[in-house]
Amino acid sequence: xxxxxxxxxxxxxxxxxxxxxxxxxxxxxxxxxxxxxxxxxxxxxxxxxxxxxxxxxxxxxxxxxxxxxxxxxxxxxxxxxxxxxxxxxxxxxxxxxxxxxxxxxxxxxxxxxxxxxxxxxxxxxxxxxxxxxxxxxxxxxxxxxxxxxxxxxxxxxxxxxxxxxxxxxxxxxxxxxxxxxxxxxxxxxxxxxxxxxxxxxxxxxxxxxxxxxxxxxxxxxxxxxxxxxxxxxxxxxxxxxxxxxxxxxxxxxxxxxxxxxxxxxxxxxxxxxxxxxxxxxxxxxxxxxxxxxxxxxxxxxxxxxxxxxxxxxxxxxxxxxxxxxxxxxxxxxxxxxxxxxxxxxxxxxxxxxxxxxxxxxxxxxxx
Amino acid sequence: xxxxxxxxxxxxxxxxxxxxxxxxxxxxxxxxxxxxxxxxxxxxxxxxxxxxxxxxxxxxxxxxxxxxxxxxxxxxxxxxxxxxxxxxxxxxxxxxxxxxxxxxxxxxxxxxxxxxxxxxxx
Lengths: 367, 122
Known about the structure:
Helix content of chain B: 10-25%
Radius of gyration of chain B: 13 Å
CATH architecture of chain B: Beta Barrel
Distance between the termini of chain A: 42 Å
Strand order of the largest sheet of chain B: 1-2-3-9-8-5
Strand order of the largest sheet of chain A: 11-12-13-10-4-14
Strand content of chain A: 25-35%
CATH superfamily of the domain at 8-56 and 146-231 in chain A: Probable tRNA modification gtpase trme, domain 1
Radius of gyration of chain A: 21 Å
CATH topology of the domain at 8-56 and 146-231 in chain A: Gyrase A, domain 2
Distance between the termini of chain B: 27 Å
CATH class of the domain at 8-56 and 146-231 in chain A: Alpha Beta
Number of helices of chain B: 4
Oligomer: heterodimer
Number of strands of chain A: 20
């Protein structure tokens, strides 16, 4: 998996090592890719029981101050005024061209206090971007030093309860601070019910060991995290979405409140309105290849005549789907005409058909 | 009695009477993780040493398996079409990939024996 010498190390690295993790580089971090159970078992275990993920590469920010709401309203197509305390929302950080700089989860914790979760690879640039927008305003942007764990799967609530952490009052996309220095939300990246917990390293090591003592829990690596999120139809920034895609072609308008789709105080507003008016030339869709051969990110898509039709942005084998699954961008006119599509893999043309997302139904606990 | 050779690319070649059976080692399958698809060559195909002969696909990635020597493909392991995980569970047995008729047996001399391979993977 390459040289991990230059990579940042997880605070709980020792725990992963003793669990037999195989490490690899991701977004500048040395991350557990798989454990001895293997990606297939890890994936299925998460859907059936509870999978424990170390996602400390993600960065948590405190955004606070009398102007915090205004700064977030400028940074994202989001109306923070509509978020009640304890409510989380998926939002986007856009550039002036409405390109997606990152996808974020914002949670309101008080009148002038928010928690923001950013992707590992974008955390530094997000911070600089937010600081620039906060300049001259009474709002601080503070990255937090936390271990970040996710417990995902249908038995997550029961497992945490058995460890003395009762989160049964939370519904999907709600968050709060259960203890000093802790932050928890009922959310995740697998399509399953589950929780994300940010906490100081010492607490995290203890909690992880307690959770792992429960036979319903096992460590899950980044490989299964990827296959789980792909089956759940969730985007990976830098792969499925990025500065060159807008919420219109990425089919993420649902993440933007209706009243802000026609413009608002946020960066990229004008470009978004223009992109909506022009219509997307290509759109992100779910794709299911025929047969058993996976199609990978970067694979070109063609129509029946061999003309360029789009590209796969994420693809692999879906252990729960029992078949290869993918997502990618396809020319809008070909989507509308339901044209036959093919993935070109090593000189072969594999038929692929557009499939609604997600591939496996979400099982969130909604209020 | 077959003689087994190994390559730096973690393949094994079991040679019996001028016909070689080729697969990947247990170490290799463990590194790759759960296989979900194996793309096999067609029987009759001529391979030169170093050609990408087979593609093994895990949940996460695709990897090439190279022809360890020159020769012609005489058989492929059709069981892998339905059960690619056989390569994980029996890499050096039922999970073999293809058989080939050797074009030049002297090429085997450059390969490792079991002890040499064990030393390579530590």
